[in-house]
Design a protein that fits this description.
It is built from 15 helices and 11 strands. α8 runs parallel beside α9. Strands 1, 2, 3, 4, 5, 6, 7, 8 and 9 form a 9-stranded mixed beta sheet that branches. The chain has a two-stranded antiparallel sheet with strand order 10-11. The N terminus is likely disordered. It has 495 residues and is α+β, with helices and mostly antiparallel strands.
């Protein structure tokens, strides 16, 4: 039943109109080019010389002096080089003559044009000696603009980092992983979005050219330093369906949906793109949950259930907290009670805000589910008791009532966290596979994901036919034997 009064703003929730943020400055490639403009027209350019052995080199190369004209028979500049530059010199000379003959230009502007022509000519002479194609006037000005853009947007490392993909060593592997999962795995009705980590404590690309391009630190994670990847998993089996590498703030802003929505909504839309229109339910924690995310997914044919903590715009978080604290009518609710608010979007889509009184109030946003009584939540507790003069530990279960909506949400809420514990805790391949190359570590992480996914699929199939599956360690031992004695040995390089 909808609530009215001072909290009726939730009843008038509208779709968020997002303003695109400023795009990142495009990074241009740059080339090594040395410009020599100290010579006059008809003379060879003056090349830089080291302080030591300057006089010796002048004796061997008389053409490099400013007093030696191009007609000198001993000039090191061959006639073929000058012949290759005739067109450029004639063009520059024609341009400068036409500019000097114009009545509208002053003598100072004519001198500037001559200086520019001489600069370009001398640059092209030096490039011709290195068998490089000459530059036109527009290309030379463009080069200066590129150098300016690189100065405004500096990047560490060698020059090629300006046009090379810093993630090129691992990106094809991630793309193939996503494509393979899309073709071969058909998930159930529930999808879960969360983050997972590839632990890396080595070189950081911010300070070292060969380091990991971007590192993330998440204190609450057991392995909270390394490459962060947003993941989409099947809510029923726990198998990872898609990965989205977090490449840094500027790179993430250039990805799909980032200009229109915030980061949490954009990541959710990218991960679930292949499942638009299927009517599946997406579960997410507070990193991805907001009214904006729910409405964006609903417009694309998906339902949503998420935990609201910080992104509470147009969500009655303050009211639900005051209700849980007993500030509203009726006093403080007992554990297991809930409060439900309802509204609808501009397109008439209904959705709900639910507060469930647990040890701390849980605030959930959803457009699917029911408030019918769900199964009782049982929490294992320990209690120390004095029996016959001896302290003993008593274990018991605390039972908490909950609506069906809360039960459905928590059934898939932590599925990726369970996957991470199996991969980083039980398997722990990242601790045993030592490497100094960050892309090897990311490969190790994705390989570990594949191993855990195979175990989860095996476990799901065994339980479906009411058989008892092997534990993880036994299963991985059998899998290692099969990989070592695989059927592809002897086929050479054939794939």
């Amino acid at each position: 039943m909808a609530r009215k009064g001072k909290y009726c703003r939730f009843l008038e929730a509208q779709e968020v109109e997002s303003t695109p943020s400023d795009g990142a400055v495009e990074l241009y490639p740059r080339h090594r080019l040395r410009v020599y403009a100290t010579c006059t027209q008809g003379h060879a350019p003056v090349l830089p010389q080291k302080r030591s052995a300057t006089r010796k080199r002048q004796a061997k190369r008389p053409c490099l002096g400013t007093e030696v004209v191009a007609e000198n028979e001993g000039c090191a500049c061959s006639s073929s080089v000058h012949a290759a530059m005739d067109n450029i010199v004639d063009e520059n000379s024609t341009d400068s003559d036409s500019l000097n003959d114009s009545d509208s230009e002053s003598s100072s502007s004519g001198e500037d044009v001559n200086a520019q022509s001489n600069m370009l000519m001398c640059t092209n002479l030096n490039m011709a000696r290195k068998n490089l194609p000459p530059l036109g006037k527009g290309e030379f000005i463009k080069y200066l603009g590129l150098r300016l853009a690189m100065t405004c947007e500096p990047k560490g490392g060698p020059i090629p980092v300006y046009w090379q993909d810093p993630w090129q060593d691992i990106r094809p592997f991630i793309e193939d992983f996503n494509l393979t999962r899309q073709k071969n795995i058909f998930p159930g009705c529930h999808l879960t979005v969360d983050e997972c980590m590839s632990a890396w404590k080595g070189s950081d690309g911010e300070y070292v050219a060969e380091g990991m391009p971007h590192k993330t630190k998440i204190a609450r994670k057991p392995e909270g330093v390394g490459a962060e990847m947003k993941a989409l998993a099947c809510g029923e089996t726990g198998i990872i369906l898609k990965l989205d590498m977090m490449e840094g703030r500027e790179a993430n802003r250039r990805k799909d949906f980032s200009q229109e929505y915030g980061e949490g909504t954009a990541v959710t839309l990218r991960l679930t793109k292949e499942y638009y229109g299927t009517g599946r339910v997406v579960h997410a924690d507070s990193t991805f949950s907001s009214v904006k995310t729910l409405l964006a997914l609903r417009e694309r044919g998906l339902f949503f259930m998420g935990m609201i903590k910080t992104a509470h715009k147009e969500y009655p978080l303050a009211f639900l907290k005051s209700w849980a604290n007993g500030d509203e009518e009726g006093g403080k609710p007992s554990r297991g009670n809930y409060c439900l608010l309802q509204t609808q979007s501009q397109h008439g889509f209904p959705f709900y805000a639910l507060g469930w009184a647990d040890r701390k109030v849980k605030t959930i946003i959803s457009n699917v589910g029911s408030t019918n009584p769900g199964s009782i939540s049982k929490c294992l507790r320990h209690r120390k008791e004095l029996v016959g003069g001896v302290w003993e530990t008593t274990r018991y279960y605390k039972e908490i009532q909950r609506p069906s909506m809360v039960e459905e949400f928590y059934s898939c809420f932590g599925i990726i966290d369970v996957h991470d514990h199996l991969r980083q805790g039980s398997l722990a391949m990242e601790r045993e596979w030592y490497t100094h190359k960050w892309w090897h570590r990311v490969f190790t992480t994705i390989f570990g994901i594949c191993l855990i996914d195979s175990y989860l699929a095996y476990k799901f199939d065994m339980e479906a036919v009411h058989n008892s599956p092997d534990d993880l360690k036994t299963y991985l031992g059998k899998l290692a034997y099969q990989l070592i004695h695989n059927n592809f040995l002897g086929q050479g390089m054939a794939m």
